Amino acid sequence: MAGLFYPGNKKALINQIDKFLKNVPNKKEKGKLLALIVPHAGYIYSGQVAAYAYKELLNRDFSTVIIIGPSHYLRFSGVSVDRRDFWQTPLGKVAVDKKLAERLIKEDKRIKFYPDAHLKEHSIEVEIPFLQRTLKDFKIVPIVMGEQSRETCQILSQALIKNIEERNILLIASSDMSHYHPYREACRMDRLALSDLEKYDLKTLSRHLARGECELCGAGAVMVVMEVAKASGADRVKILKYANSGDVTGNKSRVVGYGAVAILKSTPDLIRGKNDEVVASRRRSNLKIATSSTSGGLLAMTPKSKVKGGEMLNEEQQRELLKIARETIKTWLEKRRKLKLPAVDSQFQEKRGVFVTLRKNEQLRGCIGMILPEKPLAEAVVDMAIESATADPRFPPLSLRELKEIKIEISVLTVPERVKDYRKIELGRDGVIVKRGFQQGVFLPQVATETGWTREEFLQNLCSHKAGLSENAYKEKDTELYTFQAQVFSEE
């Protein structure tokens, strides 16, 4: 990746890294540093964010650095631990801790050495020049995760916990954050992930990742590193820096998020007042959660009177839901409280995914929804109506004065159903969820219509751009595909 992700010239590389480090304030986190989470994009995009993590290494000593990243180019089962002699960058050679690598490989049959997994993989390589500029004498253990399932994470975590006891080792999880969302939506998704990390709440983070409410392309690496660090006594997470590609390039239509995170073990002088810090952190991180429509456009209308996973609503039911949505927004804007639902149609008590879209003078004014059927339909409409009016990051909150100019549109989704054969997906009718382990991506039905993609192009872009998987992951047996449809109706 020298000359691609980072400068291939030694002098230029040193100058770039040193400039990044110089831009970071000289303030080191207190406590014993056990692990870092760092981005792995090209240096011009994420290098400055990464520098906030690597500056923590100055004047610290580690004998071995274990770097764990996702596989972007080669799909394989389990984990690959590199056991070759060294890695080389323009800054020189770095030895591999072969003894530790061999011990890890012996722990489980799903931990192996696949040479091809490391040849083109940038998620490990881009971290090494930063290490060479901030540490003096160290070895590395490069680990690439071919799959990031919970089972694989558990296997790797246990292998590491068993073999690194009491050693002077630093763990690094190499991961970018949200991929290719509009700027404000990306910031909201990434703040959610950072909030979970800051609270060391892996269970909630896992749930948010599974729902697609936030994204980490190296989610498995992050989970492993945090579990292993926790076993070594980690009790504090510090968010050092966040930015995204829009902050660098100025193009905020489709951005990638980057975070620098330190995971530490409190020293005795930090134990006092720790509870106060946790409470304050939780107050700062009181975030609303919703899945925002990426396109803000109309969902595809299925022409069937009945579709799998949910009955279509008749005209009377549609009018009732639209009335509930309008009264909800009016009540919230006037009194800052939720509408108290009257007795509703029995079909409204069925759990359904739903989007509420607001338009003003035919222009989008807010659109937020939930893909998965987590709440009864009427309750979901109430919640998403409030979110669309007040929490869509692309727009300022709606004012009561504006409400009379707003046209409300509701999109009711069918319950997602598993699809075994991707060739049964019907473009323009089906929205698709792709899922593997912690990684997930969603395309709404209209994406195919708007782009003109073939089925293969639709699924390749869904896998690579939304879920952070390989382009052809949708063809592989351990990838799950789900389809859903949508019924769309508005006050017009």
Question: How do the helices and strands line up, and which of them pair or pack?
Answer:
Blueprint: H1 10-22, E1 32-38, H2 43-54, E2 64-70, E3 79-81, E4 86-89, E5 92-95, H3 98-107, E6 111-112, H4 115-119, H5 122-125, H6 128-134, E7 139-145, H7 150-163, E8 169-174, E9 179-181, H8 183-198, H9 202-211, H10 219-231, E10 236-244, H11 245-249, E11 255-265, H12 268-271, H13 274-284, E12 291-292, E13 306-307, E14 310-311, H14 315-335, E15 353-360, E16 363-370, H15 377-390, E17 406-413, E18 417-419, E19 431-436, E20 439-443, H16 446-451, H17 455-466, E21 480-484, E22 486-490
Parallel strand pairs: 1-8, 2-7, 2-8, 3-6
Antiparallel strand pairs: 1-11, 3-7, 4-5, 9-11, 10-11, 12-16, 13-14, 15-16, 15-17, 17-22, 18-21, 19-20, 19-21
Number of domains: 3
CATH top-level class of the largest domain? Alpha Beta
* Share of helical residues: 25-40%
CA-based gyration radius? 24 Å
Q: What is the CATH fold-level name of the largest domain?
A: Protocatechuate 4,5-dioxygenase, Chain B
State the CATH superfamily name of the largest domain: LigB-like
Low-pLDDT segments: 269-309
Q: Report the mean per-residue pLDDT as an integer.
A: 86
> Describe the biggest sheet?
9 strands, mixed
How many strand segments? 22
* Backbone shape: elongated
**Total count of helical runs of at least 4 residues:** 17
Known CATH architecture of the largest domain: 3-Layer(aba) Sandwich
